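User: I'm putting together notes for a lab meeting next week and I want to include a structural view of one of the chains we've been expressing. I don't have a solved structure, so I'd like a prediction I can at least talk through. The sequence is below, exactly as it appears in our construct file.
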Amino acid sequence: MPTLHALFVAIDAYPNPKHVLEGCVADMQQFHLYLDTHCTKMGLAFRPLVLANEEATRDAIIAAFQHFQAAETDDQCLFFYAGHGARCESPEMFWALEPDQKTESIVCYDSRQPGGRDLMDKELSYLIWTAMQGKSMPLITVTDCCHSGRLREIIEAEPLRIRQIREVGAATPAESYLGFEHYKKGEDGQVSPPQARRVHLGAARDVETAKEVNVGGASRGIFTYCLVQALEAAGPLVSYTNLMNRVQMRVRANIADQSPQLETTFAADKNLRFLSNAVSAGPVTYLATYDRNLGWIVNAGAIHGLSVGDPANLTLLELVADHTPITIMEVMPDRSRIAGLDDRDKSKVYLVVVARHAVPKFEIILTPDSDPAAIMALQQGIGQYPSDFFRLGTHSEPADFLVRAKDNVLSLHKLQDDRPLFQRVPGYDAAAIKIFLARLEVVANWRQILELTNTQSAIKNEEITTMLFCVTEPGNYENNARVALANGQEVADFYYTFENAQWHKPAFQLKVTNTGQRPLWVSLLYLGHDFSITNQLLPKQMLAPGEEVWAQEIVGAEIFRTISLHIEDAFLAQGIQSIEEYFKLLICTEELNTDAFNQQGLAPDTGAASPLRSLDLRSRIRPEKRDWQAREIVVRIVRDMDLPEASKIGSRP
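Assistant: Thanks for the context. Below is the predicted structure for the 653-residue chain, given as structure tokens.
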């Protein structure tokens, strides 16, 4: 029987009376009870191990990770911690991983005793990596501590208790970290711990505190309390993204300065169902909730492509449960004010989908030689499955894409380009038309995001600086590879090189720096040649003035900021020797979430069975005015087959 192996650590009774908490053990007991019930409903065995108070010493927590060794390949593993969190200066060896040069830790029972030590975040990464060897499921970590409105039942006169020990202290030498001998060491002196597949649910951002509140006469961590509430309300099939959106909305409605976080090793895992390896299917959903200052809001805004629209073409939302129509009254960067829910319970959260996007539609026309039967079938299909992103036009109008329906095959093309944009779809029957239109929707959505912009943004170009580097050492994909700034033209060229009788892929590094005077949030979207979209290289990061962050990928257990690019052999066989790739840098004055942008790509028309990515993602203080901006970075990958002895190195003028 599939089994959930869970390790629970909760500490209230720290030895120092100043550090004592009240709600951690209660949080652990509530979450333990929920998981026990969940496993019974889902047909899972439940194998828990609990360390509470004096049992939760540093050595005991480290030893308890052996609990996961009994897990079979397809079993689920979960680590829960409730207690104090802390921050300290980061050893210089880790600065490439820490934009603010700080590192986080969990405070064990004996951490502040003579000779005691916290369990550092890098050490936790090592323990997770060790525990997950040979496992097919991600390990789930849930931490209700610092650095990881109020509830209506809260006694307002009672101050909030903070799960943070304020003494930060000096940096612990990196060499003394648990498992340091297994960390990746670069020639540049930077070090990173091994990484495992992980889904992390954290109570707060790394610069925030997690709060204890009085709920029904008892102290509770608001994060765990809201997490269990959200799980019970959403049901067992909820995705991690949807779950944490629900938790975040509940917490933010009551605590102004605590923002729960979802982080994953791989972006696609955010769409997994809770404690499952199955992907949550269906359309992108958002959450409607009542805000005491703004009224009813939905957690999507301009940065997600929403707009109010105009009287003739309004953006319309609807409740998933009963299709109640909702209109957008005002769009902000990461949320929108909505109308239509005045008769609803203000204490509840409602699932919402976009019923109609108020965006200009792309024009799709059929080539003159298309089969009449296909034209009729497409017209009927579009009538049955209307799109917000494209419409079937006529040859008298400017077109964005061409559809060719010939010899019982459907294909999509750019204007004046005979190559299909994705794998041809055989047949004109209803099933084939539905598949073709679904793929067309993927392409149109990709184009809409590529063209996402905010012409009214007051964020100045000099506030955020991007530096695109090209690796100048053929075959070196390590972080210490020599680099040069890519050219400043509209498109940066990256060339394959041919040395020592073999081709070497080009590679890049991308650094984003806050060169302004205020904190800003950034996220990087990669828009692949196969119409995939991922925020995996930089999901989101708050940058204080002077801080910087690198786009990074995880390969195996290692973190790399040198990222290689490639053109598939199947393209080369068709004579395609260059392709263009796009990065979209989103900048916002408040926390942004770009997870909803992620989408799988489409298989190209090369005989390949799966999508091909040219980005080589190897299996190796809020301002008063809310504002956002989108910047585009274009790279061209070139493999010149006519010059096998070429000495081209990366980008050139």
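A couple of points you could mention at the meeting. The helical segments are 24-42, 58-64, 121-131, 222-234, 240-252, 372-384, 430-450, 569-573. The first helix runs from residue 24 to 42.

User: Perfect, that's what I needed.
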